[in-house]
Amino acid sequence: FRTYFDFCQERRNVTSFWADGGEMNYYFFYGPSMDSVVSVYTDLTGKPELPPLWALGYHQCKWSYYPESNVKEIAAKFRELQIPCDAIYLDIDYMEGFRCFTWNKTYFPDPKKMVSDLTAQGFKTVVIIDPGIKVDPEYSVFQEALENDYFCHRADGPYMRGKVWPGRCYFPDFTNPEVREWWVDLFEELIEDIGVKGVWNDMNEPAVMEVPTKTFPLDVRHDYDGNPCSHRKAHNIYGMQMSRATYEGVKKFAYPKRPFIITRAAYSGTQRFTSFWTGDNVASWEHLWLATVQVQRMCISGMSFAGTDIGGFAEQPTGELYARWIQLGVFHPFCRTHSSGDHGEQEPWSFDEDVLNITRKYIELRYTLLPYLYTSFWRYTSKGEPILKPLVYFDQADVQTHYRTDEFVFGRQILVCPILEFNVQGRRMYVPRGKWYNYWTDEVITGGREMWVEAPLHIIPLFVKEGAMIPRYPVQQYVGEKKIEELVIDVYYKLGEEKSAVYEDGQDGYDYTKGRYSLMNFKLVGKKDEVVIQQHHEGMFDTDYNELVLRLHGVPFDIKKVLIDNEEVNLADLTSDSESTIKVNKIFYELRLIGAK
Length: 597
What we know:
- By secondary structure, the chain is an alpha/beta fold.
Protein backbone atom coordinates (compact mmCIF):
# COMPACT_ATOMS: atom_id res chain seq x y z
CA PHE A 1 0.00 0.00 0.00
CA ARG A 2 0.98 3.62 -0.30
CA THR A 3 3.31 4.33 2.59
CA TYR A 4 4.35 7.56 4.30
CA PHE A 5 7.50 8.36 6.27
CA ASP A 6 8.05 11.37 8.54
CA PHE A 7 11.72 11.82 9.44
CA CYS A 8 11.54 14.15 12.46
CA GLN A 9 9.40 16.73 10.63
CA GLU A 10 6.28 16.75 12.81
CA ARG A 11 8.16 16.07 16.05
CA ARG A 12 11.87 16.56 16.52
CA ASN A 13 13.78 13.31 17.10
CA VAL A 14 10.71 11.23 16.27
CA THR A 15 10.41 9.22 13.07
CA SER A 16 6.94 7.97 12.19
CA PHE A 17 5.55 5.89 9.35
CA TRP A 18 2.12 4.74 8.29
CA ALA A 19 0.29 3.24 5.31
CA ASP A 20 -3.14 3.24 3.67
CA GLY A 21 -3.76 -0.41 4.58
CA GLY A 22 -2.30 -3.85 5.00
CA GLU A 23 -0.46 -5.68 7.75
CA MET A 24 2.19 -3.79 9.70
CA ASN A 25 5.24 -5.81 8.65
CA TYR A 26 8.39 -3.78 9.16
CA TYR A 27 12.05 -4.80 9.37
CA PHE A 28 14.53 -2.91 11.51
CA PHE A 29 18.28 -3.02 10.78
CA TYR A 30 20.40 -1.74 13.63
CA GLY A 31 23.78 -1.28 11.99
CA PRO A 32 24.93 1.12 13.37
CA SER A 33 27.22 1.51 10.36
CA MET A 34 25.55 2.29 7.03
CA ASP A 35 27.44 -0.46 5.22
CA SER A 36 26.10 -3.00 7.73
CA VAL A 37 22.53 -1.75 7.24
CA VAL A 38 22.76 -1.89 3.45
CA SER A 39 24.38 -5.34 3.51
CA VAL A 40 21.67 -6.87 5.68
CA TYR A 41 18.94 -5.04 3.73
CA THR A 42 20.18 -6.64 0.49
CA ASP A 43 20.31 -10.02 2.22
CA LEU A 44 16.58 -9.58 2.79
CA THR A 45 15.50 -8.06 -0.53
CA GLY A 46 17.94 -9.92 -2.77
CA LYS A 47 20.96 -9.39 -4.97
CA PRO A 48 21.11 -9.58 -8.76
CA GLU A 49 23.24 -11.81 -10.94
CA LEU A 50 26.13 -10.25 -12.81
CA PRO A 51 25.09 -8.35 -15.94
CA PRO A 52 26.89 -9.05 -19.22
CA LEU A 53 29.95 -6.81 -19.49
CA TRP A 54 28.62 -5.11 -22.64
CA ALA A 55 25.72 -3.74 -20.59
CA LEU A 56 28.27 -1.63 -18.68
CA GLY A 57 29.35 0.10 -21.89
CA TYR A 58 27.84 3.25 -23.38
CA HIS A 59 24.24 3.10 -24.68
CA GLN A 60 22.54 5.41 -27.20
CA CYS A 61 18.79 5.95 -27.27
CA LYS A 62 16.17 8.36 -28.66
CA TRP A 63 12.44 8.55 -29.11
CA SER A 64 12.79 7.23 -31.81
CA TYR A 65 15.41 5.85 -34.16
CA TYR A 66 13.53 4.79 -37.29
CA PRO A 67 13.42 3.69 -40.07
CA GLU A 68 16.16 1.07 -40.39
CA SER A 69 18.31 3.42 -42.46
CA ASN A 70 18.38 5.90 -39.56
CA VAL A 71 19.44 3.21 -37.09
CA LYS A 72 22.28 2.12 -39.37
CA GLU A 73 23.31 5.71 -39.96
CA ILE A 74 23.62 6.30 -36.21
CA ALA A 75 25.63 3.10 -35.80
CA ALA A 76 27.96 3.99 -38.69
CA LYS A 77 28.54 7.47 -37.27
CA PHE A 78 29.69 6.06 -33.92
CA ARG A 79 32.22 3.85 -35.64
CA GLU A 80 33.33 6.59 -38.06
CA LEU A 81 33.98 9.06 -35.21
CA GLN A 82 35.55 6.35 -33.02
CA ILE A 83 33.17 6.93 -30.11
CA PRO A 84 32.74 3.67 -28.18
CA CYS A 85 29.16 2.37 -28.01
CA ASP A 86 27.69 -1.04 -27.19
CA ALA A 87 23.91 -0.65 -27.43
CA ILE A 88 21.34 1.09 -29.60
CA TYR A 89 17.72 1.31 -28.44
CA LEU A 90 14.51 1.13 -30.44
CA ASP A 91 11.64 3.12 -28.91
CA ILE A 92 7.92 2.57 -29.58
CA ASP A 93 8.04 3.48 -33.28
CA TYR A 94 9.67 0.16 -34.22
CA MET A 95 6.30 -1.52 -33.55
CA GLU A 96 3.31 -1.85 -35.84
CA GLY A 97 0.89 0.73 -34.43
CA PHE A 98 2.62 0.54 -31.03
CA ARG A 99 1.53 -3.10 -30.59
CA CYS A 100 4.03 -4.89 -28.34
CA PHE A 101 5.92 -7.83 -29.87
CA THR A 102 5.32 -6.62 -33.44
CA TRP A 103 7.50 -4.87 -36.03
CA ASN A 104 6.57 -2.09 -38.42
CA LYS A 105 7.54 -3.75 -41.69
CA THR A 106 7.58 -0.42 -43.52
CA TYR A 107 10.28 0.95 -41.23
CA PHE A 108 11.96 -2.42 -40.52
CA PRO A 109 11.30 -4.85 -43.39
CA ASP A 110 13.82 -7.42 -42.14
CA PRO A 111 14.51 -6.88 -38.42
CA LYS A 112 16.50 -10.11 -38.06
CA LYS A 113 18.98 -9.00 -40.73
CA MET A 114 19.22 -5.50 -39.30
CA VAL A 115 19.93 -6.82 -35.80
CA SER A 116 22.49 -9.22 -37.28
CA ASP A 117 24.18 -6.38 -39.20
CA LEU A 118 24.35 -4.28 -36.01
CA THR A 119 25.77 -7.25 -34.10
CA ALA A 120 28.52 -7.59 -36.68
CA GLN A 121 29.51 -3.98 -35.90
CA GLY A 122 29.52 -4.64 -32.15
CA PHE A 123 26.10 -3.13 -31.37
CA LYS A 124 23.52 -4.88 -29.23
CA THR A 125 19.89 -4.04 -29.99
CA VAL A 126 17.58 -3.18 -27.07
CA VAL A 127 13.83 -2.76 -27.68
CA ILE A 128 11.06 -1.20 -25.62
CA ILE A 129 8.07 -3.20 -24.36
CA ASP A 130 5.19 -1.48 -22.52
CA PRO A 131 2.38 -3.08 -20.48
CA GLY A 132 -0.53 -1.54 -22.45
CA ILE A 133 -1.90 -4.09 -24.97
CA LYS A 134 -3.91 -2.55 -27.80
CA VAL A 135 -7.56 -3.56 -27.95
CA ASP A 136 -7.56 -5.14 -31.41
CA PRO A 137 -9.32 -8.46 -32.24
CA GLU A 138 -6.80 -9.03 -35.10
CA TYR A 139 -3.79 -8.73 -32.76
CA SER A 140 -2.64 -12.17 -31.53
CA VAL A 141 -1.24 -10.99 -28.19
CA PHE A 142 -4.55 -9.30 -27.38
CA GLN A 143 -6.52 -12.36 -28.52
CA GLU A 144 -4.52 -14.76 -26.33
CA ALA A 145 -4.81 -12.58 -23.25
CA LEU A 146 -8.52 -12.04 -23.80
CA GLU A 147 -9.26 -15.74 -24.30
CA ASN A 148 -7.39 -16.64 -21.11
CA ASP A 149 -8.71 -13.72 -19.04
CA TYR A 150 -5.20 -12.34 -18.40
CA PHE A 151 -6.20 -8.66 -18.26
CA CYS A 152 -6.93 -6.63 -15.12
CA HIS A 153 -10.60 -6.03 -14.25
CA ARG A 154 -12.38 -3.14 -12.57
CA ALA A 155 -14.18 -3.87 -9.31
CA ASP A 156 -17.59 -4.05 -11.02
CA GLY A 157 -16.45 -6.54 -13.65
CA PRO A 158 -15.34 -4.93 -16.94
CA TYR A 159 -11.70 -4.90 -18.04
CA MET A 160 -9.48 -2.04 -16.95
CA ARG A 161 -9.34 0.13 -20.05
CA GLY A 162 -7.00 3.09 -20.50
CA LYS A 163 -5.38 5.15 -23.20
CA VAL A 164 -1.67 4.69 -23.85
CA TRP A 165 0.42 4.97 -27.04
CA PRO A 166 -1.59 2.45 -29.10
CA GLY A 167 -4.87 4.12 -28.11
CA ARG A 168 -7.37 2.05 -26.11
CA CYS A 169 -5.52 -0.64 -24.14
CA TYR A 170 -6.07 -3.46 -21.69
CA PHE A 171 -3.37 -4.37 -19.17
CA PRO A 172 -2.04 -7.82 -18.21
CA ASP A 173 -2.25 -8.64 -14.52
CA PHE A 174 1.43 -9.31 -13.82
CA THR A 175 0.60 -10.19 -10.20
CA ASN A 176 -0.88 -13.45 -11.58
CA PRO A 177 1.78 -16.18 -11.98
CA GLU A 178 -0.09 -17.69 -14.94
CA VAL A 179 0.03 -14.31 -16.72
CA ARG A 180 3.75 -14.00 -16.02
CA GLU A 181 4.35 -17.45 -17.53
CA TRP A 182 2.43 -16.41 -20.66
CA TRP A 183 4.42 -13.18 -20.87
CA VAL A 184 7.70 -15.13 -20.67
CA ASP A 185 6.96 -17.07 -23.85
CA LEU A 186 6.09 -13.93 -25.82
CA PHE A 187 9.82 -13.11 -25.98
CA GLU A 188 10.78 -16.15 -28.04
CA GLU A 189 10.71 -14.41 -31.43
CA LEU A 190 12.35 -11.18 -30.24
CA ILE A 191 15.24 -12.82 -28.41
CA GLU A 192 15.82 -16.26 -29.91
CA ASP A 193 14.85 -15.63 -33.53
CA ILE A 194 15.57 -11.96 -34.23
CA GLY A 195 18.53 -11.67 -31.86
CA VAL A 196 17.55 -8.71 -29.67
CA LYS A 197 19.89 -8.57 -26.65
CA GLY A 198 17.92 -6.51 -24.14
CA VAL A 199 14.43 -5.28 -23.25
CA TRP A 200 13.41 -1.91 -21.89
CA ASN A 201 10.19 -1.80 -19.81
CA ASP A 202 8.57 1.64 -19.80
CA MET A 203 5.20 3.06 -18.68
CA ASN A 204 4.93 0.24 -16.14
CA GLU A 205 3.85 2.18 -13.05
CA PRO A 206 1.39 1.55 -14.87
CA ALA A 207 1.00 4.86 -16.71
CA VAL A 208 -2.40 5.77 -18.15
CA MET A 209 -2.98 8.89 -20.23
CA GLU A 210 -5.79 11.45 -19.94
CA VAL A 211 -6.76 10.61 -16.35
CA PRO A 212 -5.98 12.86 -13.37
CA THR A 213 -3.98 10.27 -11.45
CA LYS A 214 -1.98 9.18 -14.56
CA THR A 215 -2.39 5.56 -13.44
CA PHE A 216 -5.00 2.86 -12.63
CA PRO A 217 -8.07 3.68 -10.54
CA LEU A 218 -7.70 2.19 -7.06
CA ASP A 219 -10.61 -0.23 -7.56
CA VAL A 220 -8.80 -2.29 -10.23
CA ARG A 221 -8.55 -5.93 -9.14
CA HIS A 222 -5.37 -8.07 -9.05
CA ASP A 223 -4.72 -11.78 -8.46
CA TYR A 224 -1.71 -10.99 -6.23
CA ASP A 225 -0.34 -14.53 -6.42
CA GLY A 226 -3.63 -16.09 -5.36
CA ASN A 227 -4.49 -13.46 -2.74
CA PRO A 228 -6.93 -11.18 -4.63
CA CYS A 229 -6.70 -7.49 -3.82
CA SER A 230 -7.31 -4.01 -5.19
CA HIS A 231 -4.85 -1.71 -6.91
CA ARG A 232 -4.51 0.19 -3.62
CA LYS A 233 -2.38 -2.74 -2.50
CA ALA A 234 -0.82 -3.80 -5.81
CA HIS A 235 0.21 -0.48 -7.36
CA ASN A 236 3.77 -0.43 -6.02
CA ILE A 237 4.57 -3.95 -7.19
CA TYR A 238 2.91 -3.90 -10.64
CA GLY A 239 6.03 -2.62 -12.43
CA MET A 240 8.22 -4.97 -10.41
CA GLN A 241 6.22 -8.02 -11.46
CA MET A 242 6.27 -6.94 -15.10
CA SER A 243 10.07 -6.58 -14.90
CA ARG A 244 10.28 -9.99 -13.26
CA ALA A 245 8.28 -11.64 -16.05
CA THR A 246 10.34 -9.80 -18.69
CA TYR A 247 13.59 -10.89 -17.04
CA GLU A 248 12.45 -14.51 -16.97
CA GLY A 249 11.38 -14.32 -20.61
CA VAL A 250 14.63 -12.78 -21.86
CA LYS A 251 16.68 -15.18 -19.73
CA LYS A 252 14.81 -18.21 -21.05
CA PHE A 253 15.53 -17.38 -24.69
CA ALA A 254 18.93 -15.70 -24.31
CA TYR A 255 20.38 -18.58 -22.27
CA PRO A 256 23.26 -19.46 -21.94
CA LYS A 257 23.90 -15.69 -22.17
CA ARG A 258 22.82 -13.34 -19.37
CA PRO A 259 19.69 -11.20 -19.80
CA PHE A 260 19.66 -7.41 -19.79
CA ILE A 261 16.51 -5.58 -18.64
CA ILE A 262 15.86 -1.92 -17.83
CA THR A 263 12.77 -0.62 -16.04
CA ARG A 264 11.19 2.65 -15.01
CA ALA A 265 8.95 1.33 -12.20
CA ALA A 266 10.16 -0.87 -9.36
CA TYR A 267 9.85 -1.88 -5.73
CA SER A 268 12.24 -3.23 -3.11
CA GLY A 269 13.88 -6.35 -4.49
CA THR A 270 13.43 -5.50 -8.16
CA GLN A 271 17.23 -5.36 -8.40
CA ARG A 272 17.11 -9.16 -8.70
CA PHE A 273 15.68 -8.79 -12.20
CA THR A 274 16.59 -5.53 -13.83
CA SER A 275 18.55 -2.29 -14.11
CA PHE A 276 16.93 1.11 -13.66
CA TRP A 277 16.80 4.58 -15.02
CA THR A 278 15.21 7.49 -13.20
CA GLY A 279 12.53 8.35 -15.78
CA ASP A 280 11.77 11.34 -17.98
CA ASN A 281 13.99 14.16 -16.81
CA VAL A 282 14.59 17.60 -18.28
CA ALA A 283 17.68 19.16 -19.87
CA SER A 284 18.37 21.57 -17.00
CA TRP A 285 21.14 22.17 -14.49
CA GLU A 286 18.69 21.41 -11.69
CA HIS A 287 18.07 17.95 -13.14
CA LEU A 288 21.81 17.39 -13.54
CA TRP A 289 22.14 17.99 -9.78
CA LEU A 290 19.12 15.74 -9.22
CA ALA A 291 20.76 12.99 -11.29
CA THR A 292 23.75 12.70 -8.98
CA VAL A 293 21.56 12.62 -5.86
CA GLN A 294 19.02 10.13 -7.26
CA VAL A 295 21.57 7.55 -8.37
CA GLN A 296 23.45 7.68 -5.06
CA ARG A 297 20.17 7.06 -3.22
CA MET A 298 19.27 4.19 -5.55
CA CYS A 299 22.68 2.62 -4.87
CA ILE A 300 22.33 2.64 -1.10
CA SER A 301 18.79 1.25 -1.52
CA GLY A 302 20.19 -1.95 -3.03
CA MET A 303 19.56 -0.83 -6.62
CA SER A 304 23.04 0.00 -7.89
CA PHE A 305 22.54 -0.73 -11.60
CA ALA A 306 21.01 2.70 -12.15
CA GLY A 307 21.47 5.81 -14.27
CA THR A 308 19.69 8.80 -15.74
CA ASP A 309 18.93 10.04 -19.25
CA ILE A 310 22.22 11.78 -20.03
CA GLY A 311 21.56 15.27 -21.36
CA GLY A 312 17.93 15.21 -20.27
CA PHE A 313 14.96 13.54 -21.95
CA ALA A 314 12.84 16.65 -22.47
CA GLU A 315 14.03 19.92 -23.98
CA GLN A 316 17.43 20.56 -25.52
CA PRO A 317 20.69 20.78 -23.55
CA THR A 318 23.39 23.27 -24.39
CA GLY A 319 26.73 21.80 -25.37
CA GLU A 320 28.10 22.76 -21.96
CA LEU A 321 25.26 21.00 -20.11
CA TYR A 322 25.65 17.86 -22.22
CA ALA A 323 29.43 17.83 -21.63
CA ARG A 324 28.99 18.13 -17.85
CA TRP A 325 26.27 15.43 -17.91
CA ILE A 326 28.38 12.95 -19.87
CA GLN A 327 31.22 13.55 -17.39
CA LEU A 328 28.84 12.52 -14.60
CA GLY A 329 27.05 9.79 -16.57
CA VAL A 330 30.16 7.74 -17.33
CA PHE A 331 30.55 7.25 -13.57
CA HIS A 332 26.98 6.02 -13.13
CA PRO A 333 26.57 2.23 -13.20
CA PHE A 334 24.09 2.50 -16.10
CA CYS A 335 25.28 4.88 -18.82
CA ARG A 336 22.79 5.95 -21.50
CA THR A 337 22.00 9.09 -23.48
CA HIS A 338 18.27 9.34 -24.16
CA SER A 339 16.15 12.19 -25.48
CA SER A 340 12.65 12.84 -26.78
CA GLY A 341 14.00 14.09 -30.10
CA ASP A 342 11.35 16.82 -30.17
CA HIS A 343 13.85 19.61 -29.51
CA GLY A 344 16.74 18.56 -31.70
CA GLU A 345 19.39 15.88 -31.89
CA GLN A 346 21.30 14.60 -28.87
CA GLU A 347 23.98 12.31 -30.23
CA PRO A 348 27.58 13.12 -29.21
CA TRP A 349 28.19 14.83 -32.58
CA SER A 350 25.12 17.05 -32.26
CA PHE A 351 27.13 19.78 -30.56
CA ASP A 352 30.39 21.51 -31.47
CA GLU A 353 33.79 19.91 -31.93
CA ASP A 354 34.88 20.65 -28.35
CA VAL A 355 31.86 18.82 -26.90
CA LEU A 356 32.36 15.94 -29.32
CA ASN A 357 35.97 15.53 -28.18
CA ILE A 358 35.00 15.79 -24.50
CA THR A 359 32.30 13.15 -25.00
CA ARG A 360 34.71 10.79 -26.73
CA LYS A 361 37.34 11.36 -24.03
CA TYR A 362 34.99 10.42 -21.18
CA ILE A 363 33.31 7.48 -22.90
CA GLU A 364 36.81 6.16 -23.65
CA LEU A 365 37.67 6.65 -19.98
CA ARG A 366 34.67 4.53 -18.98
CA TYR A 367 35.76 1.76 -21.34
CA THR A 368 39.30 1.73 -19.94
CA LEU A 369 37.84 1.47 -16.42
CA LEU A 370 35.54 -1.46 -17.26
CA PRO A 371 37.56 -4.03 -15.23
CA TYR A 372 37.39 -1.69 -12.22
CA LEU A 373 33.64 -1.20 -12.72
CA TYR A 374 33.06 -4.92 -13.29
CA THR A 375 34.89 -5.67 -10.04
CA SER A 376 32.56 -3.19 -8.33
CA PHE A 377 29.58 -5.04 -9.85
CA TRP A 378 30.99 -8.31 -8.49
CA ARG A 379 31.08 -6.81 -5.00
CA TYR A 380 27.54 -5.50 -5.49
CA THR A 381 26.09 -8.80 -6.70
CA SER A 382 27.94 -10.96 -4.17
CA LYS A 383 28.03 -8.72 -1.08
CA GLY A 384 25.36 -6.06 -1.68
CA GLU A 385 27.99 -3.29 -1.66
CA PRO A 386 26.76 -0.11 -3.41
CA ILE A 387 28.68 0.74 -6.58
CA LEU A 388 28.40 4.47 -5.83
CA LYS A 389 29.03 5.48 -2.24
CA PRO A 390 27.88 8.82 -0.85
CA LEU A 391 30.63 10.42 1.22
CA VAL A 392 28.76 9.61 4.43
CA TYR A 393 28.70 5.92 3.47
CA PHE A 394 32.41 6.06 2.59
CA ASP A 395 33.43 7.64 5.93
CA GLN A 396 30.52 7.75 8.35
CA ALA A 397 32.77 8.65 11.28
CA ASP A 398 33.63 12.02 9.70
CA VAL A 399 30.70 14.34 10.50
CA GLN A 400 31.76 16.62 7.64
CA THR A 401 30.52 13.99 5.18
CA HIS A 402 27.00 13.78 6.60
CA TYR A 403 25.44 16.50 4.46
CA ARG A 404 27.54 16.19 1.30
CA THR A 405 25.31 15.03 -1.55
CA ASP A 406 27.02 16.22 -4.74
CA GLU A 407 30.18 14.09 -4.58
CA PHE A 408 30.56 10.33 -4.38
CA VAL A 409 33.06 7.49 -4.43
CA PHE A 410 32.90 5.34 -7.57
CA GLY A 411 33.68 1.76 -6.54
CA ARG A 412 35.98 1.90 -3.54
CA GLN A 413 38.83 4.13 -4.60
CA ILE A 414 37.84 6.84 -7.12
CA LEU A 415 36.37 10.11 -5.83
CA VAL A 416 34.10 11.90 -8.34
CA CYS A 417 33.17 15.57 -7.98
CA PRO A 418 30.74 16.55 -10.79
CA ILE A 419 30.34 20.13 -11.99
CA LEU A 420 26.67 21.04 -11.57
CA GLU A 421 26.55 24.75 -12.46
CA PHE A 422 26.87 26.52 -15.78
CA ASN A 423 29.74 28.75 -16.88
CA VAL A 424 32.08 27.83 -14.03
CA GLN A 425 35.76 26.90 -14.12
CA GLY A 426 35.88 25.12 -10.77
CA ARG A 427 34.06 24.52 -7.49
CA ARG A 428 34.52 23.94 -3.80
CA MET A 429 34.50 20.32 -2.73
CA TYR A 430 35.11 18.27 0.38
CA VAL A 431 37.94 15.74 0.18
CA PRO A 432 37.40 12.79 2.55
CA ARG A 433 40.03 11.95 5.12
CA GLY A 434 43.23 10.29 3.93
CA LYS A 435 45.44 11.12 0.97
CA TRP A 436 44.22 11.29 -2.60
CA TYR A 437 45.93 11.62 -5.98
CA ASN A 438 44.54 14.14 -8.44
CA TYR A 439 43.70 11.83 -11.37
CA TRP A 440 44.77 14.40 -13.96
CA THR A 441 48.00 15.69 -12.38
CA ASP A 442 49.10 13.05 -9.82
CA GLU A 443 49.29 15.81 -7.19
CA VAL A 444 48.73 14.31 -3.73
CA ILE A 445 46.01 15.99 -1.64
CA THR A 446 45.52 15.55 2.09
CA GLY A 447 41.81 15.13 2.83
CA GLY A 448 39.53 15.92 5.73
CA ARG A 449 38.99 19.46 4.44
CA GLU A 450 37.25 21.64 1.89
CA MET A 451 39.21 22.89 -1.07
CA TRP A 452 38.82 24.65 -4.40
CA VAL A 453 39.34 22.52 -7.50
CA GLU A 454 39.89 23.78 -11.03
CA ALA A 455 37.49 22.38 -13.61
CA PRO A 456 37.52 23.90 -17.10
CA LEU A 457 34.91 22.39 -19.42
CA HIS A 458 37.05 19.40 -20.40
CA ILE A 459 37.76 18.40 -16.77
CA ILE A 460 35.68 16.75 -14.06
CA PRO A 461 37.56 16.65 -10.74
CA LEU A 462 38.64 13.06 -10.03
CA PHE A 463 40.81 11.74 -7.23
CA VAL A 464 42.26 8.28 -6.58
CA LYS A 465 42.73 6.95 -3.07
CA GLU A 466 46.39 6.41 -2.19
CA GLY A 467 47.44 2.78 -2.30
CA ALA A 468 44.82 1.94 -4.92
CA MET A 469 45.55 -0.46 -7.75
CA ILE A 470 43.20 0.48 -10.62
CA PRO A 471 42.92 -2.07 -13.49
CA ARG A 472 42.58 -0.71 -17.04
CA TYR A 473 41.62 -2.15 -20.42
CA PRO A 474 42.69 -0.57 -23.72
CA VAL A 475 40.13 1.67 -25.41
CA GLN A 476 37.65 -0.45 -27.39
CA GLN A 477 34.82 0.62 -29.66
CA TYR A 478 32.69 -2.07 -28.01
CA VAL A 479 33.16 -4.78 -25.41
CA GLY A 480 34.99 -7.72 -26.95
CA GLU A 481 36.40 -5.81 -29.92
CA LYS A 482 39.96 -6.43 -28.77
CA LYS A 483 41.68 -9.36 -27.17
CA ILE A 484 43.13 -8.14 -23.87
CA GLU A 485 46.79 -9.12 -24.22
CA GLU A 486 48.00 -7.46 -21.02
CA LEU A 487 46.22 -5.88 -18.08
CA VAL A 488 47.37 -2.40 -17.13
CA ILE A 489 47.17 -1.58 -13.42
CA ASP A 490 47.74 1.96 -12.15
CA VAL A 491 49.49 1.65 -8.78
CA TYR A 492 49.25 4.69 -6.48
CA TYR A 493 51.96 4.69 -3.82
CA LYS A 494 50.96 4.83 -0.16
CA LEU A 495 53.02 4.82 3.01
CA GLY A 496 51.04 2.04 4.66
CA GLU A 497 48.63 -0.67 3.50
CA GLU A 498 45.77 -0.73 0.99
CA LYS A 499 43.82 -3.65 -0.53
CA SER A 500 42.50 -3.84 -4.11
CA ALA A 501 41.00 -6.53 -6.33
CA VAL A 502 40.37 -7.37 -9.98
CA TYR A 503 37.45 -9.65 -10.83
CA GLU A 504 37.07 -11.14 -14.31
CA ASP A 505 35.16 -13.96 -15.98
CA GLY A 506 33.84 -14.84 -19.44
CA GLN A 507 32.02 -11.44 -19.55
CA ASP A 508 28.70 -13.19 -20.28
CA GLY A 509 27.09 -16.51 -19.46
CA TYR A 510 26.94 -18.43 -16.19
CA ASP A 511 30.24 -20.28 -15.95
CA TYR A 512 31.25 -17.86 -13.19
CA THR A 513 28.68 -19.53 -10.92
CA LYS A 514 30.63 -22.80 -11.32
CA GLY A 515 33.98 -21.34 -10.29
CA ARG A 516 35.15 -20.18 -13.72
CA TYR A 517 36.16 -16.70 -12.61
CA SER A 518 39.43 -14.96 -11.81
CA LEU A 519 39.77 -12.88 -8.64
CA MET A 520 43.14 -11.26 -8.04
CA ASN A 521 43.33 -9.90 -4.49
CA PHE A 522 46.15 -7.41 -4.01
CA LYS A 523 47.66 -5.90 -0.87
CA LEU A 524 50.01 -2.97 -1.31
CA VAL A 525 52.42 -2.18 1.54
CA GLY A 526 54.38 1.02 1.04
CA LYS A 527 57.51 1.91 2.99
CA LYS A 528 59.97 4.79 2.65
CA ASP A 529 62.29 2.85 0.39
CA GLU A 530 60.21 -0.18 -0.62
CA VAL A 531 56.86 -1.16 -2.14
CA VAL A 532 55.55 -4.68 -1.53
CA ILE A 533 52.62 -5.99 -3.59
CA GLN A 534 51.16 -9.31 -2.48
CA GLN A 535 48.65 -11.25 -4.54
CA HIS A 536 46.19 -13.99 -3.66
CA HIS A 537 44.39 -15.52 -6.62
CA GLU A 538 41.02 -17.31 -6.60
CA GLY A 539 38.98 -19.01 -9.32
CA MET A 540 39.50 -21.25 -12.34
CA PHE A 541 39.04 -18.74 -15.18
CA ASP A 542 42.08 -18.29 -17.40
CA THR A 543 42.31 -14.75 -18.77
CA ASP A 544 43.61 -14.03 -22.29
CA TYR A 545 46.52 -12.04 -20.89
CA ASN A 546 49.51 -13.45 -19.02
CA GLU A 547 51.19 -10.17 -18.07
CA LEU A 548 50.40 -7.24 -15.80
CA VAL A 549 51.71 -3.79 -16.65
CA LEU A 550 52.10 -1.88 -13.39
CA ARG A 551 52.17 1.89 -13.91
CA LEU A 552 53.62 3.45 -10.78
CA HIS A 553 52.39 6.78 -9.43
CA GLY A 554 54.06 8.77 -6.67
CA VAL A 555 56.80 6.29 -5.70
CA PRO A 556 59.23 8.51 -3.74
CA PHE A 557 62.42 6.62 -4.62
CA ASP A 558 64.26 5.27 -7.62
CA ILE A 559 63.84 1.52 -7.97
CA LYS A 560 67.18 -0.26 -7.72
CA LYS A 561 66.14 -3.86 -7.20
CA VAL A 562 63.10 -6.06 -7.89
CA LEU A 563 62.28 -9.32 -6.14
CA ILE A 564 59.52 -11.62 -7.39
CA ASP A 565 58.70 -14.37 -4.90
CA ASN A 566 62.04 -13.73 -3.18
CA GLU A 567 64.06 -14.09 -6.36
CA GLU A 568 65.86 -11.06 -7.76
CA VAL A 569 64.92 -10.14 -11.33
CA ASN A 570 66.88 -7.93 -13.71
CA LEU A 571 65.18 -4.51 -13.53
CA ALA A 572 65.99 -3.72 -17.16
CA ASP A 573 63.96 -6.75 -18.26
CA LEU A 574 60.84 -5.34 -16.59
CA THR A 575 61.03 -1.65 -17.55
CA SER A 576 61.42 -1.58 -21.33
CA ASP A 577 58.95 1.29 -21.81
CA SER A 578 59.52 3.52 -18.81
CA GLU A 579 61.18 3.39 -15.42
CA SER A 580 57.75 4.02 -13.85
CA THR A 581 56.27 0.97 -15.62
CA ILE A 582 56.95 -2.59 -14.45
CA LYS A 583 55.80 -5.54 -16.58
CA VAL A 584 55.45 -8.85 -14.74
CA ASN A 585 53.82 -12.24 -15.19
CA LYS A 586 50.28 -12.21 -13.75
CA ILE A 587 51.08 -15.21 -11.54
CA PHE A 588 53.11 -14.14 -8.52
CA TYR A 589 52.71 -14.15 -4.77
CA GLU A 590 54.90 -11.22 -3.79
CA LEU A 591 56.55 -8.41 -5.74
CA ARG A 592 59.07 -6.17 -3.98
CA LEU A 593 60.29 -2.90 -5.49
CA ILE A 594 63.32 -1.73 -3.52
CA GLY A 595 64.98 1.68 -3.61
CA ALA A 596 68.44 2.84 -2.59
CA LYS A 597 69.16 2.53 1.11
